[in-house]
Specification:
This protein is of the alpha+beta class. It is built from 11 helices and 26 strands. The chain is flat.
């Protein structure tokens, strides 16, 4: 009996040591992260190299009635054996969550920041310390990034746009040295915030996006499969996340705020990063070429046959394309004549029914321009316009899960919902994500 107890104690100690030193692999169900608790947990699986206690268990069980000590030891051995083959889903710790936040920031800034887990900080402190390492631009448009901390002798190597994120390297007499994307250099401190002042702002500058991964996503009135369906969203469309819950996210769509299951979306966080001088030149050249091609297509391929049926007569796109009007204005005027026509999910007919992106796509198609049938993809077409204040007729205005055409005077025309059809609204009726210019 004493021999068995000694064997039990020795092997139990070996198991504990082996367990504590074995390799543990953490598999994340998603490589996307957030500043709040992600809904997909991390799965921890133990390796199979732990010491086997099956023989010891059998020996102890035959004598467990002899002493209470032997019985307790048997229970312990059984628990250790079960842990060898059990895979447990657990909620990420505070530090693992903050490491995930850091991953998105590092992706935007292309810089390495010491992780929260390395510092073994508490949840609140680790997040604050992380955000204190950021430099965030607070300007109307952008602040220049220079290779030397002086406006007269420092050469401009890039631009840090408003609300862009960079990583703080050092301070030099009123200048911050930063790393953001492919750009490393100095920005004037007066146009940026960092340290304690960046903590609150850092929580606002990232845009949390849910990208649809299923053919047709149902957005529901509550976080339940039994809740009413508010609207439908096609695959690859992007929705702004308002809140993250257990297995669900609250999102914004044209019909209002609703909920979608995490099973059918992929989460990501968008940060704006600095743009180098070379990157800016390449982007402008590409946008200029695309604009010239669109203008040429509009002038040579403008449709003379509008999408019409029944007794209603519609003017063709060529009717609005004159020598005295811009093509953008022609696009807006052409689109306006379809106000009152129906909204149809997945549709592209300007007369018989179209959804929001189908409406924009079909309007522009009549001017010889091909656009994607996706409101999310429309956020990348053409050239960026700095907000509604600088929008011109014909510009594409993008919202969460929605897209419209700007017609001037602070208004848009869009295929809104099945209840309202194609209509005119104030452009700022919802939060604008982007304004894009084709012509």
């Amino acid at each position: 009996m004493k021999k068995h107890l000694l064997q039990l104690a020795a092997l139990s100690m070996t198991a504990v040591v082996t367990f504590s030193n074995c390799n543990i692999s953490a598999y994340a169900s998603s490589n996307k992260v957030t500043s709040v608790l992600p809904q997909a947990g991390f799965t921890y699986a133990l390796g199979n190299n732990q010491v086997s206690l099956s023989n010891l268990q059998e020996s102890v069980e035959t004598e467990k009635s002899e002493t209470e000590t032997t019985s307790n030891a048997s229970t312990t051995a059984t628990e250790i054996i079960e842990s060898e083959t059990t895979v447990t889903d657990v909620t990420p710790t505070a530090t693992s969550v903050k490491d995930s936040v850091l991953a998105d920031i590092e992706k935007a800034t292309d810089a390495v920041v010491k992780s929260a887990s390395q510092e073994e900080a508490t949840e609140e402190n680790s997040e604050d310390e992380l955000f204190k390492t950021l430099v965030i631009a607070q300007v109307h448009d952008y602040v220049n990034v220079r290779d030397y901390p002086d406006e007269n002798t420092g050469e401009i190597v890039g631009k840090l746009y408003d609300k862009s994120v960079g990583t703080f390297i050092e301070e030099d007499n009123g200048w911050y040295k930063i790393k953001s994307g492919s750009v490393e250099g100095y920005v004037k401190a007066e146009y940026c915030v960092t340290g304690d002042d960046a903590v609150d702002l850092a929580r606002e500058v990232g845009t949390r996006i849910a990208t649809v991964t299923t053919t047709t996503l149902k957005v529901r009135g509550g976080p339940s499969l039994d809740a009413e369906v508010l609207g439908l969203v096609p695959i690859e469309d992007q929705l702004v996340v308002e809140e993250e819950l257990d297995g669900w996210v609250k999102v914004s769509i044209e019909e209002g705020d609703g909920y979608v299951s995490l099973d059918y979306v992929e989460l990501s966080t968008e940060f704006v990063k600095a743009e180098s001088k070379a990157e800016e030149e390449a982007r402008l050249a590409k946008e200029r070429a695309a604009r010239e091609a669109a203008n040429a297509a509009a002038k040579s391929n403008t449709s003379k046959d509008s999408d019409s049926s029944g007794s209603t007569s519609y003017n063709s796109a060529s009717y609005y394309t004159t020598a005295t009007s811009t093509i953008g204005s022609a696009v807006a005027q052409y689109a306006l004549q379809f106000v009152g026509n129906p909204y149809v999910y997945g549709g592209t007919s300007l007369t018989n029914g179209a959804d929001c992106s189908g409406f924009v796509m079909s309007v522009y198609n009549n001017f010889g321009v091909s656009l994607p049938h996706s409101s999310g993809a429309d956020r990348s077409v053409g050239a960026a316009v700095d907000g509604l204040a600088n929008a011109q007729p014909g510009d594409i205005v993008c919202y969460s899960g929605h897209v419209a055409i700007y017609i001037g005077n602070g208004q848009i025309v869009h295929a809104s919902t099945a209840k309202t059809g194609i209509k005119v609204s104030n452009a700022d009726y919802r939060t604008v994500l982007a304004v894009r210019r084709i012509f």
